Amino acid sequence: MTQRSTPGKDPYSARALWTTGPGRLELRQEALRRPQAGEVVVRSLWSGVSLGTERLVFTGAVPESEWQRMRAPFQAGEFPFPVKYGYACVGEIAGGDPARAGETVFVLHPHQDRFVVAGTAAVPVPANVPPLRAILAANMETALNGLWDGGAAPGDRIAVVGGGVVGLLVASLAARLPGTQVTVVDIDPAKERPARALGAAFARPGEAPREQDLVFHTSGHPSGLDTALALAGAEARVVEMSWYGTAPVTAHLGGGFHSRRLTLRSSQVGSLPPDRLARWTYRRRLETALALLRDPALDVLIAPPIPLGQTPTRLADIFAGRVPVLAQPIRHDDGEEPPATP
Fold first, then answer.
1. pTM (2 d.p.)
2. Can you tell me the distance from the alpha carbon of 126 to that of 284, in angstroms, rounded to the nearest whole number?
């Protein structure tokens, strides 16, 4: 994607999306510092909205106990507000290290049209992964970590309760294992199309297969956790991947929970599983997640892009559930061509 300089625009200024209060989004103009040795300037092409987490940020539902652990790598501001948040930006290197000029990269950066980061933070996007699809990299990391935590194996019968982006990515990875039978379980029949496109079956909660070897819960709703527990077979593992923020959760651990000796395990992308710590780094995991995005079937998850200039109003509707989407991209050029950065 070639972009030319536009006279009259400050090459050291950028627009960034901030959450300024409960339900309030604002675009702010920010000074862009000059890159130092080892740094690069990234001109954003796309960024992805992580609906579950960013909805909690938008509503101020990040609990105080998690304010430090929930910080995104390049977050500005502090919880609850004002805060610049996000972690799925894809762009081109437009300044800094001349050896990397024009390189397409993924950065765990908030929604901002240009920014300066260390060159090591700008991870190259594989040539066979389109830049738009690369916005799924952070969610794919979460799915990969969840699959590791679950211990999925060939031949397993696996249920994924919750057909959001993370749940569907978990299902897509699990379906690639030889001999697995993977079912996405959701109350919304519209989730059947993406589930089947990614190699999984689909069922409503009352029709879902039981006696599963492994169950993932990704719906973000407490009732989904009860569904996940009900689908697990004897001695099976249920992996809880939803995060509820400040909302209370009541799981029904009566019935057969103890007699079936179920294991309920949390999974969170902020830490690598203990059995991989000796060999894996966060960089290796992110590079692996990017490589796993080669499958064009994953495009079924991506909604029509929103221009950055329209995000304060349009994202509010999406976070409120008035506009159903899976992966929501933001287009950063807004139809204009930004200035080149020295």
1. 0.93
2. 14
